[in-house]
Amino acid sequence: MNKVKILPWTQREHQIVKALGQCNWEVLEERDQILCLKNQPGVLIAKEGHTRWIRAHQVTQMKEERNA
Fold first, then answer.
1. CB 68 within 8 A of CB 29
2. What is the pLDDT of residues 28-68, one digit of tens each?
3. Which residue in 18, 31, 57, 67 has the most C-beta neighbors within 10 A?
4. Element (H or E) spanning 67, and its range?
5. Domain map of the chain by residue range?
6. How far is CA 60 from the centre of its chain?
7. Residue 8 phi/psi, 5° resolution?
């Protein structure tokens, strides 16, 4: 599973980040064009039973923490 961090853009996304956190979202699907995003590239993410399409540029890979 690919865990990512999201960067909120809209007011609704800010509310979701406040409620569920910015990190550890699971990527379910990636597409080149999403109608609800005005045909921009999008990523379907999920966390705690909530799913949402967001713009691809709002997703950043989380760095894996390694114990030395």
1. no
2. 999 999 999 999 999 999 999 999 999 999 999 876 544 44
3. 31
4. none
5. 3-61
6. 8
7. -65, 140
Give the per-residue pLDDT at 2.
84
pLDDT at position 68:
41
> Residues 48, 25: contact at Cβ < 8 Å?
no
List the one residue out of 32, 37, 19, 26 whose CA is nearest residue 62.
Answer: 26
Spatial separation of the C-alpha atoms in residues 54 and 27, rounded to whole Å? 11
Kindly tell me the sign of the dihedral angle through the C-alpha atoms of 38, 55, 47, 7. negative
Q: Is pTM, for the whole model, over 0.85?
A: no
Burial of 16 per CB tally in 10 Å (0-12, 13-18, 19+): buried
d(CA 62, CA 65): 9
